[in-house]
Design a protein that fits this description.
The protein is of the alpha/beta class. Helix content is about 35%, strand content about 15%.
Length: about 425
């Protein structure tokens, strides 16, 4: 048997996977056009390239309106503000997400309420959501996570029953569809990230989507320093900020949006092959998107790891072994927001919190198991290459399974790095 690379053996793979981001002459040409136009900023809003991109993005996601903005975190803030969130309101969101899903709630002097996720998809649990609703609840913020969309039928029914707004966090869901309807168009508004790692990127950036005209007007004004929207049909006036996107970024995004459908299709094909290869490996369980999700968007390919089938070796040790074999991956990609060192909030930092942290006693067992014991995350570029790339991932995992003594006992810098990362973040 070949020894694991973690224990000094030869890795399965030394060739890098497909580089990301991807680009070609389309982006070069569009960037040159923006450069030569000499109108590089976001004002007047929306500027030429930003307007073209927003219109194309809205059409691709079945929304009436879209606005290109500075980043994904701000996109969530804008969507919440435009939906009418006020200081003291509560927003229910999953505990298993990036801290930036919750930070905008606090920035608007509202209160994030963390609830658990479904074990099947690691997306917001509708039953836990309903149990968390109080008279102060104003919005539900589902996160479409990794490769799965939240149960938008159940959440929409809850929202209608209780008079709440649904704001979709679509940072992982560019091009995804639920029952043939685009992510970001299923609730009051949606928020997308365009950060470097995302399925659609300009390095940084974000998009706000909505099909509600009044929400669109409020969003447009908030983005553009409080200026009246172009239509000004509803006549809203309030303090806004400069959350606009530059023309250089918008130019890149026009090229990126053209290639997104083909990339999503290729990732889906490779994911199916990978799933077939992993399906027979004892100790791994595939995460299956809801069948009502009719178009996939795979930001991360995720699966569950069961340590008992791997000789008791921890998930973090497994991830270290897989990386040593040449497969980039992660385990503690996200952790419960209420336990994260990136979500450092002190009593008194925000008036809406009062004298303590409302989530101080929060415990979400499904989230905690996923974060600290079960989840393995493979970034989407590993699915953009050849079938052989995918087969190498399966081969590497089979090799780990066949060398459990090495897995349990190997002393390698990657093992210590994963342990340090986990300790630092907890």
């Amino acid at each position: 048997m070949p020894r694991l690379a973690l224990a000094g053996g030869t890795p399965v793979r030394t060739q890098p996977f497909t580089p990301w981001p991807d680009f070609d002459e389309r982006e070069r040409t569009l960037l040159l056009e923006a450069l030569e136009a000499r109108d590089w900023g976001g004002y007047p809003f929306p500027n030429t390239f930003a307007d073209r991109f927003a219109a194309a993005f809205a059409e691709a996601h079945d929304a009436r309106h879209a606005f290109a903005v500075a980043n994904g975190t701000i996109a969530i803030e804008i969507a919440l503000k435009a939906a009418g969130l006020r200081p003291g309101d509560e927003v229910i969101l999953p505990a298993y997400t990036f801290e930036a899903s919750a930070a905008p709630v606090l920035r608007l002097e509202a209160v994030p309420v963390f609830v658990d996720v479904l074990p099947s998809t690691w997306c917001l649990d509708p039953d836990a959501t309903e149990a968390a609703i109080t008279p102060r609840t104003r919005a539900i913020l589902p996160v479409h996570l990794a490769m799965c969309m939240a149960d938008m039928d159940a959440l929409a029914a809850l929202a209608e029953k209780h008079g709440l707004a649904v704001i979709e966090d679509c940072a992982h869901a560019h091009g995804a569809k639920w029952k043939q309807q685009g992510a970001g168009s299923l609730g009051k508004a949606g928020a997308f990230s365009l950060q470097t790692s995302k399925l659609l990127t300009a390095g940084e950036g974000g998009v706000v989507t909505t099909s509600d005209d009044e929400t669109a007007e409020r969003a447009e004004s908030y983005i553009n320093c409080g200026r009246a929207s172009r239509s000004d049909r509803f006549g809203h006036r309030f303090l806004g900020f400069n959350y606009r996107l530059t023309e250089f970024q918008a130019a890149v995004l026009l090229g990126q949006l053209e290639r997104l459908p083909a990339q999503n299709e290729r990732r889906a094909e490779r994911a199916e092959r990978l799933g077939q290869g992993l399906d027979g490996i004892d100790g791994l369980a595939l995460v299956e998107p809801d069948r009502r999700q009719t178009s996939p968007a795979i930001y991360q390919y995720v699966f569950r790891y069961d340590a008992t089938a791997f000789g008791g070796a921890s998930r973090d040790r497994f991830v270290a072994a897989l990386e040593a074999e040449g497969v980039p991956c992660d385990g503690l990609f996200y952790e419960p927001v209420y336990r994260s060192s990136l979500f450092t909030v002190k009593p008194g930092d925000f008036r809406a919190l009062g004298d303590g942290l409302p989530w101080a006693e929060t415990r979400c067992p499904v989230t905690e198991r996923a974060a600290y014991e079960e989840s393995v995350w493979l970034h989407h570029p590993v699915l953009l290459g050849s079938e052989g790339d995918v087969d190498d991932i399966v081969t590497a995992i089979e090799k780990i399974r066949d060398n459990l003594d090495d897995l349990r006992t190997a002393d390698h810098p990657l093992v210590h790095l994963k342990s340090l990362n986990r300790a630092a973040r907890r």
